[in-house]
Amino acid sequence: MKNKMQEQRESLPIFPFKQDLIAAIREYQILVVVGDTGSGKTTQLPQYILEGIPNAIVAVTQPRRIAAISAAYRVAEETGTKIGDLVGYSIRFEKVASKNTKLQFLTDGTLLRTCTTDPLISQFNCIMLDESHERSLDTDVLFGLLKRACKQRPELKVIIMSATLDIEKFQDFFDAPVFSVPGRMFEVDVLWQKTIKFQTLKTTFVQRCVETVMHIHKTEEPGDVLVFLTGQQEIERCAKNILDLHKELNYNLVRHRDSVKDMVVYPIYSSLETLQQKAIFEKTPKGVRKIVLATNIAQTSVTVPGIRYVVDCGFVKQKMYDHKTHMDALLVVPISQAAATQRAGRAGRTENGKVYRLYCKEAFQEMSPTTVPEIQRSSLLGTILYLLKIGIKDVLNFDFIDAPDPELVQTGLKQLFYLGAVDKENRLTHLGKIMSDFPVSPFLSRCLISSSQDFQCSDEMCTIVALLSVEDFYIQPRSEKDQALAEEKRQEFYDSSGDHVTFLNIYNAWRDSGYSQDWCRDNFFHYRALNVAKNIRSQLLSAMKQHKLEIYSLTHKQKIPPSCRQPILKSLCSGFYMNTVKKQKGKTVFYPYIASLEGQSTLLFLSPQSSLTKIDQDRLDWVIFNDVQFVTRPNMRITSRIDFEMVKVLFGRVDIKHHKMEEEFQTIREVIDPMHNEEHGLRNEVHSNQVERPV
Ligand code: ADP
Ligand code: MG
To answer: Where does the Helicase ATP-binding domain lie (predicted)?
Structure first.
C-alpha cells in the first residue's frame, strides 16, 4: 500500500516525466530543466537520478543556506533515510554527510569554494545548479566553471534548473537542450492600489500588509495567505501587529465567520527554525486561516501549499554595490516585473487565487522588466580571489553568462591589492593564496592573518571573526520593560572602543559561563547564534594551524583590559582600513576616507545598534566599520574607534590616488594634507612581513 508521502510525490507535475527526464539526462551532458515552482524539481529530480543513473554522486546547489538544509531534510525523509546518510548537505562551516552520501545539497558558495582546490569538481559526477533563474553571483560563476569542467570530463552531467521560462540565455550559453515540465496554473486576479507609488509605500508597507491581511481575513473566502516582505524585522513587526489586531477581532463581523474562525501566523526568513515548523507544509485545519509571512525565499525556492491569496509589498532587500564606499550594502528596492509575476503566481497553484499588490499599475510599469543579475551589482572581491586561485588569470575575459561591469572587476582587483592578496600585475600573492583558503571574506581573512603575524592576538581575532560571520546574536525584546532590562544587562560587556571588543567581551563571558544556555537567556543573546560562532571559531583556529599561523592569546581575562585593545584594533585595521571614516565635528555624519580622497561627497551614519552611539559624540573622530546597511539612510554596522595612526601606515603602503578635494572636505583635508608631504617617508615604514609586495 502506498503511503501518504508516496502519493504526494506521485501527484507532483514532474512525476509523469520521470522516465523521459532520466533518458534525457543519459543522452545529454548538459540539460536545462524548466518547471514552475512547486513542480518537484528540487526534491524529486535528484531522486530520479539516483534511481535511474548508476553510480551517480549528485550535488545540488541552492543560493540560500536554509533552502539547502530544508531540501536535504525533506529528501532524506522521502527516502526514509537519516540526514547525513544517503542524503546530506554542506554549507559554509557545516557539513552533514558521510561516505554513504550519494546526494548532497550545497550552497552555490560552498561548491564554488570546492572548485578552488578541485576545479573539475571530481568528487561529483552529476551537478545540478538549482534556482538558476535567480542568477546569484556564485551560481553565475559556477556556470562558467562547469562549462569548462564538462569539456574536460565527458562523463560529468550538468543540469541547470530554472523556474521561469526565460531560458534562452541558458540554452545559448550552454548550447544545451531544454526539458520543460508543464505546470498547472490557475487564474490569479490582480488587485491594484489606485495611486500608491513606491516612494510613499517605502515607509508604510509593513502597516499596509497588516491592513491587507486583516481585510482578506475578514472578507475573503477560506484560503491561506502568503505575504511577501523584506526581512526578519519587518516580518516580526507585521506578525505582532496582525496577532494584536486578531485578538481584538469580533468574529461576528467577519463575512465568512462560519467557515473561517481563527488564524495562525508563520514567519519564514533566513533562520532555519522558521522552515522547520512542519505545520507550514501541512493542510490548514478547517476553519483556520494560515498566514505565512515570508521573504523572497517563498518566491521560488519554498512552496507552501494551499495559498489562495498573495500580498505583494513590492519590495525586496537586495545586495547592491555602493560605488562610493566600494562595498555591498543591503538596500530595500522595488522588485522587478518578473518577480512580481512570480509572486502573483504563488496564489494560483491549486485553485484560482488573488494577488493584492500594494502599489499601483503605473508603479508596476516603472519597474524594471527583470532583476539585474547579482554579478552586475556586487562587490567582486571574493569572486576574483577564487577565480585567481583556480588559475583564471584574466578575470575580465572569463566565460561569464553576463559579463560583470569592468569597473567592478577593476575595483575588486584594486581592493585585493590593498589587502596584499594580489600584486601590481594582478597576480595572486602568497598571502592571497592563504586568504583564499579561509571560508570568510578577504577582509576578514586579512585580519586573521595579521592578528597572528603582526599583532599576536589571533585567538581573540578568531572569536571576533566568528561572531562577525553569524547572524545577529542580540535578541531585540518586544516589550519596553525587557528592552530596558537587556540594555542594563549588556552594559557590563560594553567596551568604549566600540563593537568589536564588546563582541569579544560578550563571547568570553559566555565562555566563562560554561557556554550556558541560561546565561544567553538572562543576557538577551541568541544561544543558537553564539553556538554557531563557537563552532566557526574552532574551524578558524584549525584553518590557522593548517597554515602554520600561530595562535596567540592576549589575555585570559573575561573582560578585555584597555591595554589589550590596540593590537586587536590594529589587526582589524589591516582588513578594514578601506572602511575608515572620519566624523564631522559638531555633526553626526561620517565621511569615508578613501571616497573623500577621490573627491566624492558621501555621508555615512552610525547604526542605532552601534555601541558607539552610547558615548559622547564629540569624542568620536576616526572610526572603522564592518559593513553598511541602508534602511532610510546608509548606516555603518559594527563600528570601532581607531587612531588615525593605525591606518596611516596602511594607506601609505598602497597607492591611493590623491585627487583634488572639494571645499567641503576641509575637515578631512586638515588631516590628510600633512600625509601628502610625508608620503615618501610612509612608504619606508612598511614592514616587510605585512604584505608581499612586488619588487
Ligand atoms: P520545485 O523545486 O519545482 O519548486 P519542490 O521539489 O521544492 O518543487 O517541491 C515539490 C513539492 O514538495 C511542493 O508541493 C512542496 O510543497 C513540497 N515540499 C517541499 N519541501 C517540503 C517540506 N520540507 N515539507 C513538506 N513538503 C515539502
Ligand atoms: Mg526548487
So the answer is: 22-183
